[in-house]
Structures are given as structure tokens and as C-alpha cells.
Design goal:
Layout (H helix, E strand, L loop, with lengths): L7 H17 L1 H7 L4 H14 L18 H4 L3 E3 L18 E4 L15
Antiparallel strand pairs: 1-2
Helix pairs in contact: 1-3
């Protein structure tokens, strides 16, 4: 039975299949970690296919990074704060920083000397 993108269970099952393939398929892994639009389309198509998730929307971006800090530092994704005409409180950037590597803060690893 195909995985259903509209459910968290379906998304997780699709992601599990995709990541298992990337852990063992060096050729595909090298291709999906590139940053060009063609490679992101390839990543999306492979996720949809390998994850057996035919109803995954076309506008979902699949971005893959190697797990080391240098590569993770190459991507920042924010959840935007609610739009307002006037700020009533300071914005905590860590509350909005959702991918890839969250910078140091409470409950996060502290930098090693020289970082």
C-alpha cells in the first residue's frame, strides 16, 4: 500500500525508505547532495518514488546535506514569525530556526575552541 503524504505516518514511512536507500546507494547520495535545481528535482522525484508516496505534492522541496557541520552550515531554514505592524517583544531566532543545523543555544552543543 502506498504511503500517504497527507498523514504524518505516511511521510515518516516514505522518509525512512528514502533515507535507507541513501545510506547504501553512494551514486544517488552524491547526486542528491548537490545544490542545483535539477538535483533538487531529482531528490524530490526519488523521494516520491523510493518512498512510495505518489500523492507527494510537486512543490515539496527535498534538500539533502551531508551530516557534518560544514555542510549543515550551508543551509538555513526559518519558520517566519507572525507578521505584525509593531513588534511587542524581541524575536528569539532559535524559536524560528528549523533546519538544518541550529546554532548554539540552551540545550544545544556548545562550540569547541576555534569555532
Amino acid at each position: 500500500m502506498p504511503n500517504d503524504w497527507t498523514t504524518n505516518v505516511g511521510k515518516r514511512a516514505a522518509a525512512k525508505l528514502y533515507l535507507e536507500e541513501l545510506a547504501t546507494n553512494d551514486t544517488m547520495r552524491k547526486r542528491v547532495v548537490k545544490s542545483g535545481q535539477d538535483d533538487r528535482k531529482y531528490s524530490h522525484d526519488q523521494f516520491k518514488s523510493i518512498g512510495d508516496c505518489p500523492n507527494m505534492p510537486d512543490d515539496v522541496e527535498v534538500i539533502c546535506l551531508e551530516p557534518d557541520r560544514d555542510h549543515l552550515n550551508q543551509l538555513v531554514v526559518f519558520k517566519l514569525p507572525k507578521q505584525t505592524n509593531k513588534l511587542t517583544a524581541a524575536i528569539n531566532p532559535l524559536a524560528h530556526w528549523i533546519a538544518a543545523w541550529v546554532p548554539y543555544g540552551p540545550g544545544r552543543p556548545q562550540p569547541t575552541p576555534g569555532e
